[in-house]
Amino acid sequence: MDHFLSEDQQAIVDLAKQISREMIVPKRVYYDETEEYPLDIVETLAKSDFFALFVPEEFGGLGGSCYDLVLALEQIGHGCVGIATAYAASALGTYPIIVGGSQELKEKYLPKVATGELRAAFGLTESNAGSDAGGIQTTAVLDGDEWVLNGTKQWITNGGQAHIYTIIAITDPHKGARGASMFIVEADDPGFSCGPKEKKMGIRCSATTELIMKDCRIPKDRIIGRRGTGFITVMKTLDKSRPGIASLGVGLAQAALDEAASYAKTRYQFGKPIISFQAVQHLLADMAIETEAARALLYVAARHIDAHPKDMSKGSAMCKVKATDVAMKVTTDAVQVLAGYGFMREYPVEKMMRDAKILQIYEGTNQIQRNVIGQELNKEYTK
Amino acid sequence: MNIVVCIKQVPDAKDVRLDPETNTLSREGVKSVINPYDRHAMEEGVRLKEEFGGKVTVVSMGPPQARAILEEAISCGADDAILVSDRAFAGADTLATTYTLSQAIKKIGAVDLVICGKQATDGDTAQVGPGLAVRLDMAYVTCVQQVSTVTDKVVVLERMMDDGYDEVEVELPALLTVVKEVNTPRFPSIRGLRKARVADIPSYTAEDIGADVAMLGLGGSPTQVVKVFPPEPKGDRTILTGSVDEIAEKLAEIFRESSIGG
């Protein structure tokens, strides 16, 4: 369906599609099987300005429109969600600086993020703090002109591959929601290290590691925003980043539909291509309906966010839930359409199904997203 | 350093069909692309500019539609682009093409380095690069597989040969034709695409380049295409199978039985 994109947006879509088709698709099996970080593709995306896409113009970027990034991520995710995650993680890691950082921090880091010289990662999750962000145990204590960080972050995307890490830590344990602050830790800061790469079910080429801080000392001015604003920065970051996950869901669902429909046209049973059977047609029709619906909600949410509304949480959470639940359903059905072949690693849909699952989990599980939506509804209907 | 890259729009080789009635190439509905070798020439120009400084101007002789490949060149890092387009250029063979391009390049001014693809995939002559160098009175090296150093005086490079490569130092100004091994062409960038959309791409006519009309187009071309036809399918074919030794033995037997083996 035509979404009446501007000439510039269409150019972004076409370029992302070209890189996806010519570079990502031919290499996705290799990267899935070797679990290597797709550095060559990440560098290609950087050279083609995709890292500038999420950085504001005044800091060397291309404007930082949510819609533009969503359009690019959809096409990259269409090729491979693992590779798309390796790219998108830098946007997530950079958003805290964009939404809460001082002018100095923005000037120092953002231009280098925009060129791809610096990759970023976002450090929130810990072994006892996932959905319950309040369970964070990493601490930061001010010692003269330095913050001293101690603690371990878990399952951090881009761990070991990023140059800068935006980390949330408790600065005032007794202050509750105002007791956490965000910091920028550089990969070579003393006391900072990354654990080994985790072995995952899907998105296997993207790097996922622990971040370990043992008396990690960083300059005092690396705090993002004021002391105690950590949770606010995290919430603002996730509001901006969730449509990115939704776009991976839409791209992935579309890719699975494309594979299933093309296969159904060429697979003959009972003397006919299986696409001529109503049972298969209905499966494909539902896959197409859901994918289009998820895309429409995503684009609306992205445009809504770009209008800088006071509250963007609900739309952001809605598109994330819808698109990623759709991706899970559509990829599972694609395996069903390809049946025995679909289950084989020779065909791309089993990987798509494995990759889909994480979308319902990371950057806030879909259950947490529904909490966010529910709480917003509760507020709306109290007025 | 002033670098000029010559590029040509050709039918996409993946999409070429023969008209069964006329036996000529059917160009209708066939996608046009940058000649694949020229893509490497373009990349080399941009790469050398980035590494050694300078400016890259891309030149294409062709119909107005060729503007599309010039825009693509800008989106991939070229600074300027010039379309050389006039009805008078139509039907040019390589002799008339080199004359036309040389006149256009002379109009650009002092040029240090001209880079072309080894050949175009439509005509496959590989004559335009060397011919252009002669007309511009430049040294030339064909089939360049690597450019290692560029100074204000010389270029040091490798020329691909059947049995290896030659290391060549050539004085500037010079013209190089490149093979695919020379680099991996980049994708466009988003900034490049924005620049290309608003780029001012001048179109030079025969008059603009001060050309002698008698040397242009069909009239200036000694080569005349009399007929284009697909080769007749050859007679019987036999595919030999088995181990290398068995195949060799069977082949030798065939030679012995025919007159080939003497």
Account of the 3D structure:
The complex is a heterodimer of chains A (383) and B (262). Chain A has helices at residues 7-34, 39-47, 66-79, 81-100, 103-115, 230-266, 278-306, 313-343, 349-359, 366-380, and strands at 120-123, 139-143, 146-157, 164-170, 180-186, 192-194, 208-219, 223-224, 268-269, 272-273. By secondary structure, chain A is an alpha+beta fold. Chain A has 3 domains: 7-115, Butyryl-Coa Dehydrogenase, subunit A, domain 1, CATH 1.10.540; 120-228, Beta Barrel (Butyryl-CoA Dehydrogenase, subunit A, domain 2); 231-380, Butyryl-CoA Dehydrogenase, subunit A, domain 3 (Up-down Bundle), CATH 1.20.140.10. In chain A, helix 6 packs antiparallel against helix 9 and helix 7 packs antiparallel against helix 8. The two termini of chain A are 37 Å apart. The mean pLDDT of chain A is 97. Chain B is an alpha/beta fold and 262 residues long. Chain B has helices spanning 36-52, 67-75, 94-108, 128-135, 190-198, 244-257; strands at 2-6, 9-11, 17-18, 25-26, 32-34, 55-61, 80-84, 113-117, 139-150, 154-161, 164-171, 174-178, 203-204. The mean pLDDT of chain B is 92. The longest helix of chain B has 17 residues, at 36-52. Chain B contains 6 helices and 13 strands. Chains A and B meet through helix 1 of A and helix 5 of B.
